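FAQ

Q: What does a record look like?
A: Structure on top, sequence underneath. For example:
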């Protein structure tokens, strides 16, 4: 049995213990010969981890992408089979999630309370350790739901850890969002684990939550107490999981956390599980410490093992498993689904039906990509938007026939638009945000410079920005480019162990740099001093005003642009314009 650790009265919910092995409803069929060409196997160790992160509601699989065709029920079957067939009773397995469960898929976003049903589905997985991401902290509704339905739920209150986020109760008290930390022994090998979880320096939490800077939290008394209660000689592995990228070239937040831990635990294995930047990544911190980050959107299950734990030279191994049925069968040694998994898949289908997520708006004849096609390609989604979709914007407030520039930030698009049915779900997936159009009337000569100005400046809203594009390390160029049309398209990950992390060898995809903003330009006969409409999302109003003021500061006609110059343009959101475009194309093709 696992050691029970009680953390005192102040944190009544902060009791942390492990759980016993799940019960198997049925015996599983082991098929020894599920060979998949191009598959790299997992190297199991004494201690094994499976990790998901940034699922953003993608629990119903990727219906237009065969490479990610598993749903949450399949994932539940997989972990159960994997534990039974591969881990057994001579090794241990810890299942971890690191947050961001909303915003990005109809299954989470189409319910009246965002996440109402997807949380239930997500929580069917038997996580040993879990925590929250920043997407659980934007709205009060999400935060309250997360706290009561997961962090303090009967099932997870002993598994939920957050070392630097507090929940604000109805009467205004701050209480830890789960346990501050957690100590347990693994059931099979009695490995002594001390687990912590840190949120990155997120500053936009709603009033029901408070995020403390990780390095500040590590100066607090609770941490000093934890260290003296569990000194170096009494633990085998420190697990630091949380909503924080494991490679952070700008803020180095995780590296600061690591140096604090190393002061207290110079010779202990420290294993990190990262999140938030939506990449597959693996980083070596020192000879006793590595970190894995397992992508996004239920495209990846991260696998990490540690062997020779009690020696001076532990061995780490990592894999990024493609989230599909084939790979799940292969790695678990079974293609038989568990009863629980099958039930959950049925439940997901039923909920998708109830939320009308399968309702077909139109058909997308070919895929449109965010990064794997250049902006100049007609298979690039920003090209589609600026050339075909945004010109359909109508105004019910002003003269829409006036020359205009329509600017959108590229971060407002969240996913590629895949060939196949365009459904209600697709809307949530591709462009989940409703938007308001704002406009300013300015001389053509000024309007012309705004997009370039914004693109020359720093990245707008990094949290929405793409993975590969931001970080050189992940540029596929640093691994051999695989061109083999027999292989499926997918990730070719470059990390600190090299280029062999992906469990399937993929046909590599190119990644092109995409600017901060793109624009649609519709000019009627105009001279440089004629006034045009500069239209943009109200979301980026501050940035546009800054651009206008900076660009015009040396002009004789200089005016200081303020919010008062900005007016509502009216018209449909990009999300709706895209839907209408797809529907109209469909109608035309039937004429
Ligand atoms: C696409 O939608 C049509 C109905 O419009 C349906 O018959 C077909 O099965 C759908 N395809 C997929 C892959 O869901
Ligand atoms: C859009 O703008 C209108 C008018 O300014 C405002 O009433 C509405 O709340 C805004 N909606 C969003 C989503 O910002
Ligand atoms: Zn995320
Ligand atoms: Zn995040």
């Amino acid at each position: 049995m696992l050691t029970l650790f009680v953390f005192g009265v102040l944190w009544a919910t902060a009791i942390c213990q492990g759980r016993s092995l799940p019960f198997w409803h049925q015996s599983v069929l082991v098929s020894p010969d599920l060979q998949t060409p191009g598959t790299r196997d997992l190297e199991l160790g004494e201690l094994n981890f499976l990790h998901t992160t940034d699922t953003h509601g993608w629990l119903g699989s990727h219906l237009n992408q065969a490479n990610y065709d598993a749903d949450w029920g399949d994932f539940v079957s997989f972990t159960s089979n994997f534990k039974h067939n591969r881990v057994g009773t001579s090794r241990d397995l810890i299942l971890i999630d690191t947050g961001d469960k909303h915003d990005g898929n109809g299954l989470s976003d189409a319910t009246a309370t965002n996440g109402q049903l997807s949380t239930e589905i997500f929580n069917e997985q038997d996580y040993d350790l879990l925590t929250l991401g920043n997407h659980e902290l934007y709205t009060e509704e999400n935060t309250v739901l997360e706290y009561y339905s997961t962090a303090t739920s009967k099932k997870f209150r002993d598994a939920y850890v957050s070392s630097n986020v507090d929940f604000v109760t109805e009467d205004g008290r701050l209480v830890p969002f789960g346990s501050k930390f957690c100590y347990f022994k693994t059931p099979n090998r009695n490995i002594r684990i001390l687990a912590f979880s840190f949120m990155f320096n997120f500053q936009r939490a709603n009033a029901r939550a408070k995020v403390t800077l990780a390095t500040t939290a590590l100066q607090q008394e609770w941490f000093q107490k934890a260290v003296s209660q569990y000194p170096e000689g009494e633990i085998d592995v420190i697990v630091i999981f949380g909503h924080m990228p494991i490679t952070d070239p700008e803020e180095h937040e995780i590296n600061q956390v690591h140096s604090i831990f190393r002061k207290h635990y110079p010779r202990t294995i420290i294993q990190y599980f990262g999140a938030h930047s939506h990449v597959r990544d693996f980083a070596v911190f020192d000879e006793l410490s590595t970190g894995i980050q397992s992508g996004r959107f239920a495209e990846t299950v991260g696998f990490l093992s540690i062997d020779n734990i009690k020696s001076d030279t532990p061995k780490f191994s990592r894999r990024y498993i493609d989230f599909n049925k084939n790979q799940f069968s292969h790695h678990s040694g079974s293609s038989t689904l568990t009863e629980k998994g099958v039930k959950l898949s049925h439940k997901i289908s039923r909920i998708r039906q109830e939320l009308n997520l399968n309702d077909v708006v139109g058909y997308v004849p070919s895929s449109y990509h965010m990064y794997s096609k250049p902006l100049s390609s007609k298979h690039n989604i920003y090209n589609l938007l600026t050339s075909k979709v945004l010109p359909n914007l109508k105004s019910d407030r002003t003269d829409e026939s006036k020359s205009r520039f329509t600017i959108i930030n590229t971060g407002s698009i969240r996913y590629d638009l895949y060939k196949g049915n365009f459904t209600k779900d697709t809307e949530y997936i591709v462009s989940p945000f409703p938007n308001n159009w704002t406009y300013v009337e300015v001389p053509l000569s000024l309007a012309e410079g705004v997009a370039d100005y914004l693109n020359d400046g720093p990245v707008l809203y990094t949290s929405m920005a793409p993975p590969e594009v931001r970080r050189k390390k992940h540029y596929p160029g640093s691994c051999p480019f695989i061109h083999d049309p027999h292989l499926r398209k997918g990730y070719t990950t470059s990390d600190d162990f090299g280029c062999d992390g992906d469990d399937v060898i993929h046909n590599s995809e190119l990644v092109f740099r995409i600017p901060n903003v793109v624009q649609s330009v519709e000019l009627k006969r105009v001279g440089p001093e004629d006034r045009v409409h500069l239209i943009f999302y109200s979301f980026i109003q501050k940035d546009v005003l800054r651009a206008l003021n900076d660009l015009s500061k040396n002009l004789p006609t200089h005016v200081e642009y303020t919010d008062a110059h900005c007016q509502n343009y009216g018209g449909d959101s990009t999300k709706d314009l895209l839907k209408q475009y797809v529907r109209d194309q469909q109608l035309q093709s039937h004429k």
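Q: Is there anything notable about this one?
A: Residues 434, 436, 538, 568 surround 2-acetamido-2-deoxy-beta-D-glucopyranose (ligand 2) (CB under 6 Å).
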